[in-house]
Structures are given as structure tokens and as C-alpha cells.
Design brief:
Distance between the termini: 19 Å
CATH superfamily: Surface-adhesin protein E
Shape: globular
Radius of gyration: 13 Å
Number of strands: 7
Number of helices: 2
């Protein structure tokens, strides 16, 4: 896929160039998409996602930026890349970063969750 190298470049550039749009909020945090990175491939969407936590997570992160893939027809999602940050909104020290070989297994999208709202927003584009 030609879009993957472009997304990897945008991922490497980090949150400084991102235009985050709020998509969902839960008691635990808020969730954003960067629509400028959205790529369509049939029923699939790839997009940069920012997860902003209200409480520091076990590994110390307050935010994560994910290259997410949504299967709009199959109603499932997976992570392709992940970076955890010490501060909110993808800022501060990088605490953890996966390589491009992460590709988590597909997981079903459960209705009423932040993931379902993120997938719905990405798939609507």
C-alpha cells in the first residue's frame, strides 16, 4: 500500500503537526482523530488516533498516539503503531514506542465504547 509510508511519515512527525478533532469522551479520558491522516482502502480506514487519559496509566503515560485501522464492514479494529507519552495530548517524554511490526490482532468493535465512536467517525468519512 502506498498510503502506509505516508502515514508512517506523519506518525514520525508526531503531534506537533496533527489537527486533532475530539470524537469521544469517557470518564477515563478523551479521544481524538486527525482526519488529515485518514486513508481509505475499500471498507478499511487508517487514521491517527490520540487517547488522552485523565489518570496516569500503569506505565506512566497520560496519552497515546495510535495508527489505527478500522474494518468498517466487519466492525473490527486493530493497532498498527503505538507511542505512549508522559504528558497529555501526545506531548512530553516518549515512554514507549512500537516498531512498525506491531499489527495487533483484529478485535471486535463493541457498541457504546470509545472505539465504536472512533470507528464510526472514521468510517463515516
Amino acid at each position: 500500500m502506498r498510503a502506509l509510508p505516508l502515514l508512517a511519515l506523519l506518525f514520525a512527525a508526531g503531534p506537533a503537526c496533527a489537527e486533532w478533532t475530539a470524537v469521544a469522551a469517557t470518564p477515563g479520558g478523551s479521544f481524538y482523530l486527525d482526519y488529515a491522516t485518514l486513508r481509505k482502502d475499500g471498507d478499511h480506514r487508517r487514521v491517527m488516533q490520540l487517547d488522552n487519559q485523565k489518570q496516569r496509566q500503569p506505565e506512566g503515560e497520560l496519552s497515546s498516539i495510535v495508527l489505527a485501522e478500522f474494518d468498517c464492514k466487519g466492525k473490527r479494529s486493530r493497532m498498527l503503531e503505538l507511542t505512549n507519552y508522559a504528558d497529555p495530548m501526545g506531548q512530553g517524554k516518549v515512554l514507549f514506542r512500537t516498531g512498525k511490526d506491531l499489527v495487533s490482532p483484529w478485535a471486535p468493535i463493541v457498541a457504546g465504547t470509545a472505539v465504536s465512536l472512533l470507528a464510526g467517525a472514521a468510517c463515516a468519512k
